[in-house]
């Protein structure tokens, strides 16, 4: 289902931190909804949005 997985092996979910190496990449969450790893506003760590 998800093409990018967390270090734990699970699908990532919207709102969770993502790796800086994943910034700009897109995948799907466990429910199949599209998510993208990005910085928003003044975040110091990227999140899945």
Overview of the molecule:
By secondary structure, this protein is an all-beta fold. Helix content is 0%, strand content 20%. A three-stranded antiparallel β-sheet has the order 1-2-3, with no helix packed on it. The mean pLDDT is 92.
- How would you classify the helix and strand content by structural class? mainly beta
- Poorly predicted regions are none
In the sheet with the most strands, the strands line up as: 1-2-3
Please count the beta strands (DSSP E, at least 2 residues each): 3
Q: Please tally the helical runs, counting DSSP H or I stretches of 4 or more residues.
A: 0
Distance between the termini: 17 Å
Shape: globular
Average residue-wise pLDDT:
92
- Helicity range of the residues? under 10%
Determine Rg (CA atoms, Å). Answer: 10 Å
Order of helices and strands: EEE
Summarize the main sheet: 3 strands, antiparallel
Whole-number tally of structural domains: 1
Strand content: 15-25%
